[in-house]
Amino acid sequence: MSAHCQVTGRKPGFGKSVSHSHRRTNRRWNPNIQRRSYFLPSEGRRVTLTVSTKGIKTIDRDGIEAVVARIRARGEKI
């Protein structure tokens, strides 16, 4: 499972970790990704989405039907 949110599009951030001696090593900041299953009343079925915690809040605010419509408008398959 890739660290990519289907709702918000959040992906890992990349950068350097700097030690006390100022040595730099690569690191990445992963978003908090969850697999959540939602019921779509219009289709009478469940869909499983890979969403960040901010994406979960977006679904709670706007509703699953509106969010799924936005995802499909972008061309992603659900």
Automatic annotation (TrEMBL):
Species assigned in the record: Dietzia cinnamea
Pfam families: Ribosomal_L28
Family label: Belongs to the bacterial ribosomal protein bL28 family.
Residue ranges, annotated region (Disordered): 1-26
Source organism phylogeny: Bacteria, Bacillati, Actinomycetota, Actinomycetes, Mycobacteriales
GO molecular function: structural constituent of ribosome
A Gene Ontology term for the protein's cellular component: ribonucleoprotein complex
Gene3D superfamilies for the chain: Ribosomal protein L28/L24
InterPro entries: Ribosomal_bL28, Ribosomal_bL28/bL31-like_sf, Ribosomal_bL28_bact-type, Ribosomal_bL28_sf
Segments crossing the lipid bilayer: none
PANTHER family: 39S RIBOSOMAL PROTEIN L28, MITOCHONDRIAL, LARGE RIBOSOMAL SUBUNIT PROTEIN BL28M
The name this protein goes by in its record: Large ribosomal subunit protein bL28
